[in-house]
Q: What sequence folds into this?
């Protein structure tokens, strides 16, 4: 008697493609495609990535080959047919949380179809790969699996076509450009859509082997030139005959095996005129009379053909070989004399020197260096500095800032101010140590204050008077006063609307009847 997925005898309920017992297949989506790459090199090639939660997995070859299917995890650890070690018998394998049925053609000998079938779901990401063996023309593998809708893979990479081998002989490289497509429509989209959905990207480069190359000359890189300019620069390189095999291996062979003319191992280089210093015109003499100087611009310029006159860094020309400064004299200086200003007298405390301006001028007032005025009548430059004739006294005084606001918003508080010892000179106030001022005359830095701008009075109540009646209802009163912070009466400071009551009823209970009788008889 059959047992359904609901574990009931006689039940025909089955798991749907999503792995849901009795489901209708609406909770997952089927992904299917073909891996039909051509010109594969021997080795491993990724076919498709199975995400976590994949169900109804079926991978099968569409034509017989000697290739093998392989399974690895996200860390490239192979569970099946890894490291070129092939499983040679049909076997059920527990991989990624599900049982894979492996149908291996090796168990029957010769070429056949390989397939992998698993119910799922997988509990880790797996990659189905192909171990391509030499002797096979190409591959044709169909894959199909389902993924939960919440884990749907809306985008996947297409591998693209391999380019031709980069070389016609020896070992080269083939490239291709994988591109991202929408799984459902097959339309091409930006690669970032696949990357954001963790789609497996096929390899974009692989080695390719063609045929053995004919012996040819190997030409190394030219060594640096022996000179940077001039007529003797030379450079060398390595040249030898070698042979390159299809697998990329190279061997050196005798030069006689190379049929073409041997390339040169030496060539001339940097053979052009070296840069040189070039000078501009001399400037005018720096003085109208007496000893002076002339200057000119000296720059390093290129003499290379096509770059004549190009400005170069000074290092390119080396040590400066032409002068850029020289002496000059337009004749002796006449009619010059020293002109002195008035002495700038000492004005500040601690000033020790007086100064004045001393200049050498001609009759027109033009200034010259002081030494131009030296002659037999003026053998020395007049002094421009001397000691103070009358040093000004130092007068230190106390200076006070404005008082701060009263610390109390209402009532008694205090005020502060800054008091410093300073000297007042030429409009400037310079603060000094307090020891320079008379401490006995130092102004106070704090004082008491009273602030009534935000004051309010407070009601104070006296005791209630004795009730005017012992029963039957009487009244009693009390004194209410408004006082300030010093407990002085200030009736205008208090708010009448919050004033406590001055009178209240009392002894409102009824009087006893005996008392009423006594009152009655006494009144009659």
A:
């Amino acid at each position: 008697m059959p047992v359904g997925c609901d574990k009931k005898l006689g039940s025909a309920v089955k798991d749907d493609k999503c792995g849901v017992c009795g489901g209708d297949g609406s909770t997952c989506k089927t992904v299917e495609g073909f891996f039909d790459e051509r010109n594969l090199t021997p080795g491993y090639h990724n076919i498709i990535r199975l995400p976590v939660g994949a169900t109804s997995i079926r991978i099968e070859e569409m034509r017989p080959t000697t290739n093998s299917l392989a399974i690895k995890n996200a860390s490239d650890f192979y569970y099946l047919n890894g490291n070129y070690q092939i499983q040679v018998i049909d076997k059920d394998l527990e991989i990624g949380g599900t049982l894979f049925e492996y149908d291996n053609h090796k168990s029957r000998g010769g070429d056949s179809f390989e397939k992998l079938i698993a119910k799922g779901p997988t509990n880790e990401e797996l990659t189905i790969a192909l171990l391509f063996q030499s002797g096979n023309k190409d591959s044709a593998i169909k894959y199909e699996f389902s993924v939960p809708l919440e884990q749907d893979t809306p985008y996947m990479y297409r591998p693209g076509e391999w380019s031709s081998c980069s070389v016609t002989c020896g070992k080269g490289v083939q490239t291709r450009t994988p591109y991202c497509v929408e799984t459902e429509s097959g339309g091409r989209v930006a690669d970032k859509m696949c990357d954001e959905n963790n789609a497996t990207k096929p390899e974009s480069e692989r080695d390719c082997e063609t045929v053995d190359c004919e012996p040819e000359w190997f030409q190394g890189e030219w060594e640096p030139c022996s000179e940077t300019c001039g007529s003797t620069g030379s450079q060398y390189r390595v040249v030898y005959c070698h042979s390159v095999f299809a697998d990329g291996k190279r061997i050196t062979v005798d030069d006689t095996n190379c049929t073409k003319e041997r390339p040169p191992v030496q060539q001339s280089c940097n053979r052009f005129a070296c840069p040189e210093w070039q000078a501009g015109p001399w400037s005018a003499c720096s003085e109208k009379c007496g000893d002076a100087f002339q200057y000119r611009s000296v720059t390093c310029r290129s003499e290379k053909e096509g770059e004549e006159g190009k400005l170069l860094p000074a290092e390119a020309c080396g040590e400066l070989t032409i002068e850029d400064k020289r002496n000059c004299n337009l004749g002796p200086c006449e009619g010059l004399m020293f002109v002195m200003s008035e002495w700038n007298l000492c004005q500040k405390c601690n000033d020790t020197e007086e100064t004045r301006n001393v200049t050498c001028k001609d009759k027109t007032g033009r200034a010259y260096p002081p030494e131009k005025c030296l002659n037999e009548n003026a053998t020395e430059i007049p002094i421009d500095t001397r000691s103070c004739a009358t040093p000004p006294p130092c007068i230190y005084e106390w200076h006070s800032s404005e008082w701060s606001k009263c610390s109390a918003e209402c009532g008694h508080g205090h005020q502060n101010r800054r008091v410093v010892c300073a000297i007042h000179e030429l409009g400037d106030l310079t603060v000094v140590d307090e020891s320079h001022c008379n401490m006995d005359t130092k102004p106070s830095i704090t004082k008491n204050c009273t602030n009534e701008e935000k004051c309010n009075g407070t009601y104070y109540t006296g005791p209630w008077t004795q009730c005017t009646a012992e029963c039957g209802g009487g009244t009693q009163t009390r004194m209410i006063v408004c006082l300030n912070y010093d407990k002085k009466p200030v009736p205008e400071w208090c708010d009448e609307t919050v004033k406590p009551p001055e009178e209240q009823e009392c002894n409102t209970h009824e009087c006893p009847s005996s008392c009423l009788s006594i009152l009655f008889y006494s009144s009659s």
Remarks:
- Residues 396-451 form a domain with the TSP-1 type 1 repeat fold (CATH 2.20.100).
